[in-house]
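Async update (no meeting this week)

Hi team, since we skipped the sync, here's where things stand on the single-chain job. The sequence we agreed to prioritize is pasted below, unchanged from the tracker. I ran it this morning and attached the output directly underneath so nobody has to dig for it. Comments welcome in thread, and please keep replies under the output.
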Amino acid sequence: MSDEIVKFGIRQQKHLPKHLDAGWFVEAGERYCFCDPCNLCPRVSSCENEETIIDLPNDSINIRRAIVARKGFKIVSIDYSGQEINIAANISKEATWITALLAGKDVHKATASKVWKIPVEQVTGHQRSISKVLNFGNLYGAMASTLSKRAGIPMDEATQIWNDWWGVVPYLKAWIEAQGVFALHNGYISTYFGRRRNLKWMIEKMVEFSSKGNKKEADAQEAFIRRTAANSPIQGSGADIIKIGMVRVSKGIKKEGLSDKVKMILQIHDELLFEVKDDNDFEKTCFYLGDRMIFPVEGWPVPMKVGIEYGDSWGKMVELKRKETVTEIVKEEVRSDSPIIVKINTQVTKDIVSVIKKAILESPGEEKLEIMFSGKVFPLRADTKVCSLTLKNQLKDVFGVVVEEKK
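Output:
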């Protein structure tokens, strides 16, 4: 057994037994204390400096599998999908990212297609990987050398790609530069929700280096301040969001009388962990918790998204997907020119609707069609003929949408 595994076991052995109680890993709000101001990010952290629950790099120990649900319950994980990119896009108003995210497209592929000036369909896996390194890395102040090392490409090639990338995200570039100037001038930086992080001590250190003629150290400190000024609002806004989400979920559990069915166990960065009763309403309860974590933010064009997974343990989970259901197909009058009206009971994006419309337009049929969701009607072309059976089969087979006809 390696020294790394031995040390890991000793650390976990010290902390985990304090929280093991009749199948519970953590009695949330009773035994485990979270604090807010002690962490600079400012993410919620443990006041007792508890050991982080991780998996070792070589996957020889998956400590998460030790966190299991009680009999009749499931462990449920709900996290904010792609949170950092979403926040950066919303705060900086970067058009390239916002356009891709609103269309439900892969933001890394969309960025890569502009960097290499090729259609999205022609973006290779390697190009997408490079784009992903840049999209995340440059939010943390990564340089071309970082790309060269992680992507395994020559330095001159990495430098060219790095420079091209900045040309693709001009609004993000301008925002990052403005954040650095603001931090150096004001001595603090704020999250989108107004939480401040004091940077005066960093600036004082930079001034001290400069006064002693240590230009190299002063420049390094200034670069560190600029990186912090760009990263803190993103990570900090993410921390604010998860805390707001926790409060909303807690209130929702009490409001709906779910205290016997749901227990919030842990918060890990952009993820909340629950224990949920495995009954007939299990999926409904999970989706309710996910919906409570989502809330509109004024001025943000890209809405929040959450992903839901569940399982008997935290270490082995499967994804829980919400099925879009068409609740009604109504033919209001028995006339050959009367349209079929499709009413969708859950909100779907206009992009999905347009895809559905395109597929139906290309199919033969006998009747006209209108699609309605969120109170809005999307009629198809006047000369379109679509029969009810064709529509049902397409929605089910192509899009996975279950159709329930009103009797």
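Quick observations from my side:
The chain has three domains: 3-81+261-292+306-319, 85-237, 325-403.
Residues 3-81+261-292+306-319 form a domain with the Alpha-Beta Plaits fold (CATH 3.30.70.370).
Reply here if anything looks off.
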